[in-house]
Write a structure and sequence with these properties.
Length: about 240
């Protein structure tokens, strides 16, 4: 086999994996562009240009936390306050990240996959049935993570650029994040066979919200969800033993 044929054989699987990941991440593309643009516009409205917006999205890449960080930066929050707020906002990563320890165990790009594991990326890579037939799961994980990462950075840069030439009110822009979560939840509900975990998540979140209010409900909601999912999982395992 000549070198050109060998090269084509090496490129074809990678292209197939990239194509599959792109098709699956189109909903995230639309959401991340809107969210990233919103973040870029808000960041620009506080005097930070395109390079700052790009740097935060490249090195922080925290979605909702980046929205929160804008007010913290402007308000001169301390490092301790920033650390505690980040822990509160992103505590959910501690819970669902555990489920990816085994799939990411022997992956060459594991540090990058860990860094880029967002809610939307997790919803795709954790859905094992979503990996196309004859496609390497690890390659699929990488391309999904990479594409979502690039979507967010692109949206942030575009938003900061737009904010520089078209100043307008940023009120209500941050609701785009909630809208994306609802879209992903709906898609998973319609495509999934069992709705138990989704129901548990909604009920626990509503209960924690009623008990503690919107500023402090997140950790309690995550703890309740983890406990109930663990108990449900134990019952399922016991039933099949």
């Amino acid at each position: 086999m000549d070198k050109k044929a060998e090269k084509r054989r090496g490129i074809a699987p990678a292209f197939r994996g990239l194509k599959a990941a792109f098709l699956d991440t189109v909903p995230v593309l639309t959401g991340y562009l809107v969210l990233g643009i919103g973040f870029g516009v808000i960041f620009r409205s506080h005097g930070y240009g395109v390079l700052y917006a790009a740097a935060m999205s490249i090195f922080v890449y925290a979605g909702s936390m980046q929205y929160v960080a804008v007010d913290m930066i402007v308000g001169g929050a301390s490092l301790l306050a920033a650390a505690l707020t980040t822990l509160m906002v992103n505590a959910r990563h501690l819970f669902y990240g555990i489920s990816m320890v085994e799939p990411y165990q022997n992956v060459r790009h594991k540090p990058f996959l860990i860094f880029t594991l967002t809610d939307e990326t997790y919803s795709l890579v954790s859905h094992r049935e979503g990996v196309p037939a004859q496609e390497s799961p690890t390659r699929y994980y990488f391309f999904v993570s990479l594409l979502n990462y690039l979507y967010w950075i692109s949206g942030s840069v575009i938003g900061a650029a737009i904010g520089a030439v078209l100043p307008f009110s940023t009120e209500g822009i941050d609701f785009a994040l909630t809208a994306l979560f609802l879209t992903i939840f709906t898609e998973q509900w319609l495509s999934g066979k069992g709705h138990g975990p989704a129901v548990i998540g909604v009920l626990c979140s509503v209960l924690a919200l009623l008990l503690l209010g919107r500023d402090d409900f997140l950790l309690l909601a995550m703890a309740l969800i983890l406990l109930l999912l663990w108990l449900t999982g134990k019952r399922e395992v016991a039933r099949y033993e």
